[in-house]
Design a protein that fits this description.
The structure is a single chain. This protein has helices spanning 4-8, 12-57, 117-131, 169-174, 182-195, 230-273, and strands spanning 65-71, 79-86, 89-96, 102-104, 109-111, 114-115, 142-148, 156-158, 161-165. It is an alpha+beta fold. It has a domain at 59-207: Trna Endonuclease, Chain: A, domain 1, CATH 3.40.1350. A hairpin with a 2-residue loop joins strand 5 (109-111) and strand 6 (114-115). The termini are far apart.
Length: 287
Amino acid sequence: MAPYSSVRSAGRGAAEKAREHAARAEELRRELTRVEREQRNWEAGAEGERLVAEALAVLEADGWTVLHDVRWPGRQRANVDHVAIGPGGVVVVDSKNWTGVVSFRDDELRVGGRSMARELTGVAAATSAVTTHVPARHRRDVLGVLCLVQQHAPAREVGAVTVVSRDAVADLLRALPTALEPRQVTRVVDVLARELGDDAGPAAGGALTSADIVPPRRAPRGRVRQPARRPERRRGKQRSGIEVLVRAVLSVVAALVVVGLFQDFVESLGESLAPPAVTTQQPITGP
């Protein structure tokens, strides 16, 4: 019969392994919960961006162009949801698909009782980053907007950011005083599309598909006239210069020949016209 102490120690190693796996399983469950929560947040964010893009698309008829999901200047893994360029200037719009009751207290935005000061600071930072790529003369016409996707709230300024609901964002932009002429809008669109057009990618913030966004203005399609080649034109100029020089030399030679011939002619003519020499005969005298 085995000692009592040996019976109590039976299965100790397996039990330890079971506890290790149980701890690991709990850790994985917490990680899975966190990943699923982030997945839902990304999906909600993507849906919110799509809905706000639809709300901004109606501005196209009013001379606005909207860029979506563009690069955040100075950041590797961050994007800017929307940048609208139109008669009212440049508007950086950040979509927030939050749940909860919206309230404003002491110049502070709160959603579900939680302060959104950090999020407002992020919108202001994105607006500042985009402003650095706007032509200098138009930088005073850049506005930062936080757009609430689900909540209905009148437009209100909170610090440097204007908070507005999705159903009122288009009216907010239409009401802005005219800051850009149509040709200036086109120029700013070209600049920002080039400067912010690097791929942000899904990892940077739930990129929209090409079917969901309003494309930036592009050059009209058609046959493009090719400019004349400068090297050929330069060689043509060189050949023309040589030809002129040769012609000038030939002209000088011809002139010299003509002058020589003319001098010979004048001399021969003078000789022919000169009076004949008179000879005086001496009288013959005799002895």
